[in-house]
Amino acid sequence: MNVQTRVKERAEEQASAMSNDQQSAIRALANDLHRLNHSVMRAVEAGVSVELVRSARHHGGDGQWGDLMIPVILTRAG
To answer: Would you say 67 and 57 are in contact if contact means Cβ atoms under 8 Å apart?
Structure first.
């Protein structure tokens, strides 16, 4: 079994254990991350370096948490 097939199977197993609301939130997050990655690539192509840094951690109250990110932008003088 190749690695990519196993990753897909694991994702499907995890999704089946989630509620519809959780699955919807994960799909929205994945879409937003895809758009973020494209934005980072556009910024790099425009001549800046981008580093994403955790600025805080959001806690949901029942043990869940998520990292909140900010961009650190570096430009080359000249």
So the answer is: yes
Helix and strand element counts for the chain (H, E): 2, 2
Six-digit token string for 59 = 């806690």
Q: For residues 43 and 50, what is the distance between their CA atoms, to the nearest angstrom?
A: 7
Q: Measured between alpha carbons, how far is 22 from 26 in angstroms, rounded to an integer?
A: 6
pLDDT tens track for 52-64: 999 999 999 999 9
Query: How many domains does the chain contain in total?
Result: 1
Q: What is the pLDDT of residue 3?
A: 65
> What pTM did the predictor assign?
0.74
